[in-house]
Write a structure and sequence with these properties.
The protein is mainly α. Helix content is 80%, strand content 0%. Helix 4 packs antiparallel against helix 5, helix 6 runs antiparallel to helix 7 and helix 7 runs antiparallel to helix 8. The longest helix has 20 residues. The N and C termini lie far apart (52 Å).
Length: 179
């Protein structure tokens, strides 16, 4: 573990790089620098379960490390990092939502399906959170169990023929193609 001076320097570097990334969001070299900085920061503050449960800076560091890993195309690593965060914060809907999205991007549809179902149970029907979880469920089911995906799709169309309205319709139509 680094000294408190190293930690302060890493935090300052992370803040500076975040500002640079906002101005140049597609600069790969900058994204790699941001990833590397947050990886070092995660290692410095610690990312074991106890640290992630008790220290917000540990959660921020691993969350941002996962973000930049995903931006660089390392979605498997991002999924593993977010999974660690989810283990430490199992009641956080925001972390669960992020974990679900990351696992879908990594092609881990069975794990993502479990997360989507949990998100669905906790969301009020008809809200954006509910539609997002329903869409995630459908996308995962298409890969995990096509027969169930067809049943869920037909049921969804009966219960909500407008498919969430203008905001959601195109995404649902795309997800339901061929079912």
């Amino acid at each position: 573990r680094g000294t408190r001076f190293e930690l302060a320097a890493l935090i300052a570097t992370a803040k500076r790089i975040e500002a640079e990334v906002r101005n140049n969001p597609d600069d790969r070299e900058l994204l790699e620098k941001a990833y590397s900085t947050y990886k070092r920061l995660s290692e410095s503050v610690g990312y074991d379960d106890a640290k992630l449960k008790s220290k917000s800076d540990a959660r921020v560091a691993i969350n941002r490390q996962a973000h930049f890993a995903a931006r660089l195309g390392n979605v498997d690593e991002a999924a593993e990092l977010i999974k660690k965060l989810l283990t430490a914060r199992p009641k956080s809907r925001a972390v669960l939502k992020r974990a679900c999205e990351t696992h879908i991007a990594a092609g881990r549809h069975e794990e993502a399906l479990t997360m989507a179902r949990t998100l669905l149970r906790g969301a009020k029907a008809g809200t954006d959170d509910w539609y997002q979880a329903k869409l995630s469920q459908l996308l995962c089911l298409r890969r995990v169990n096509v027969d169930t995906a067809k049943k869920v799709w037909r049921q969804f169309l009966v219960l909500d023929p407008k498919m969430g309205g203008k905001v959601w319709r195109d995404r649902f139509e795309e997800a339901g193609k061929g079912l």
